[in-house]
Please model this.
Amino acid sequence: MQFNQETYTFTDPGRFGKIMLIVGIIGLLLSAVGIAVDAHQFFASYLVNFTFWATLGIGGLFFVLVHHMTGAVWSVSVRRIGEAAMATLPMVGLLAIPMLLGVNQIFSWTDSAMMHADPILEAKLGYLNVPFFIIRTVVYIGVWILLSILLRRLSLAQDSSWGENAPSRFLRVSGPGTIAFAFTVSFAGFDWIMSLQPLWYSTIFGLWFFSGAAVTIYAFFAITSHALAKKGVLAKEITQEHRHDIAKLLFTFMVFWAYMALSQYLLIWYANMPEETAFFKDRWVGTWTFWSVFYPVAGFVLPFVLMMSRHIKRNRWFLTFWAVYLLLFHWFDLYWNIVPTFHPDNAIFSWMDLTLFVGMGGLMLWRFWAVFTRHPVLPVTDPNLQDSLDFVNQ
Amino acid sequence: MSATTSNASVRSTEPLVWGNPSFHDVTQTVSGIVEERKTPIWWWVAISISGALTLNFFAMMAYLFWTGIGVWGNNVPVGWGWPIVNFVFWVGIGHAGTLISAVLFLLRQKWRTSINRFAEAMTIFAVICALIFPGIHVGRIWVAYFMFPIPNQMAMWPNFRSALMWDVFAVGTYFTASFLFWYTGLVPDWATLRDRAQTKWRRLIYGVLAMGWRNGNKQWKHYELAYLLLAGISTPLVLSVHSVVSTDFATSMQFGWHTTIFPPYFVAGAIFSGFGMVMTLAILARIVYPPVKNYMTVTTLERMAKVIMLTGMMVGYAYITEFFMAYYSGNKYEQFVFVNRMFGPYAWAYWIMFSCNVIIPQIFWSKKMRTSIPVLFVASIFVNIGMWFERFVIVITMHRDFLPSSWGMFKPTIYDIGIFAGSFGLFFTLFLLFLRFVPMIAMSEIKGVLPQAQVKHHHGHDEGGA
Model:
């Protein structure tokens, strides 16, 4: 790996990408064995890991949209990392294909006998049917890919043109893009996860899904900036001050996640209506009980108390620890939401959870690295770049 | 607020304060409004009207206490009528102040400095108006202390599982924290007024209010830390108060009320309505005190317009999600509530709500609209109307419950209308007093964001940023 500190470009992207590609392929091949061994488990693991890695791309898109919408200055120096993260969305599109092929294995609403047996479920057939589900998934991912391509293209155009009008061009995409993002992400949450229990519904579910994506991207920034700095990439450009801001936002969205999760739980617990409490009751059996207690403690209480300190946010090792921790918890969050429909009696972790995690992660990071190293890793002509480099937390 | 500002915030091409005033000019302009010997005629006219409405407010409340809440239009199935609508409306308005002063402070939005004092004052007055409604809604005002968990020999306690109980705590905490935050920010400005006072009484009163502030270096250091901590403490309150208010509805088993998106949806709506009211009042203040125009600049108003558009669309997102989920739920009762809201006898209210909150703010995509004072003023009024109707729709469309024989229409009485109008009287009376006796712009903070306050080297300024 060779990096030119003058032009902020990679002259040689090194082996990381290739290693990730190989790891990814091996991981997915191993997982493919799982279809033959236990297809039921395979698709449970697949959905958890697919939604996990999808939130990386979604989170990247969210970051770039918000960066342009708010005219943020501090985050210019990490913008290209965010852009490369959102550029993984075409890979998310590829990874969605097995989910769409396995739709009958994953979603109980594909069982027409069951749907027709219950008048409430029958009423949902207009929405919960395979062709419409596939169309919707294609539209969601298509919208994300389109936005990510447009924003990335503008960003690269900025490099060559000394983009005078760049801010307004970015705004023209990110303004309407944010609206499209809000609805597609929410409905992706409804479709991919909430519809696993077709009788159950919760209006906040889309926001919950989004909150996980937001946590993911800031955790990703914390980890990548640390890892890159160790290789001498952006070591001076992403300073402690930037990491402090990343940490604050990571903390903020962790709390936001908790706010979403609590709003959902509290209101359903309080009203105690059977069609709603079913969701939590399903997670209060067998060993799920343990994980349901673990959920708020690990997801909110511990990080809230232990990550609040300014010292911890400004220390790169502590921050990296909490970023990894919150990413792992985000994975568990999806697991806790998805898997009880596959394993209603007890929480079962499978080797496929791991191989699919590594497999998909390998492909996603390969794509990330390929995009990231192809162009300058700083938007060198951005009018706010100097201010971003000089940025100091007060 | 801090005297040292990172480059990031001053790089904006446009200065936050127009006309390049010196520190002394700021003091002169802002203190001048308070120190003006002759109270302007418009002020007397305005306070006469708002004072009359306030008197009417208290008179109608007296009649209410004497007669009972039957004087209102509340009747089953609309057991909660206008009082709860007004309560939520005023609490919502009260959200902008702390959002502007605390959340925008933590987000390093320097433009907040010109409107934060103003917005926080509005918050406090709005919360006062809000707190009156649950108080009088209990009907038996002489047992209002039941709302508080006071030990008593009858061993009677409020139900701690009741969302209404949480309201008392949430709104009470919010009021306390907002007030402390506001007052802390005011202390240096009270001291300025004290030091400039020409009369003994002024010096005494402002001196007591300034609590011995001497502009010492150490005092400023403590002040800045206290301000940061109060901002940190107030930030969760911005979210918690309206979340708790939303649970008044959402913890029930009432279709159309019981939905999990209510907490964030109400918070977004509250910020939306609060910014609407700040916008209305800021434009009025610019008209009656023209020097203020250089502080509450068109650019500041433009930024507020962006927040209004954003939060308006968040509310729109919630409307659409609720509507979709009513369909998706397959629940006939849930679906009926939404169809009834949109196409039933209260469709006019629903579409007023939807137009004012979601459609009208869309004009702010255009910079021309965002920077036109008349457009901003009219739009902010629509925001206020729309948000009142949002609560109206939520509360009043319960007029068709599970028992069709009890269906009917809600008819507000003269006391509903008079008390609602009266609360505006109280709000504006307090606000007019504020304009006359309290520096409406935070002088010390404005000075901190002026270009001449910027220090180029900011090493060693490590406080803050928790």
About this structure: Residues 7-137+168-453 of chain B form one domain. The interface with chain A takes residues 2, 4-8, 11, 108, 161, 163, 239, 243, 247, 250-253, 258-264, 313, 317-318, 320-322, 325, 327-331, 365, 458, 461, 463-466 of chain B (CB under 8 Å). Chain B is about 65% helix and 0% strand. Chain B has a mean pLDDT of 88.
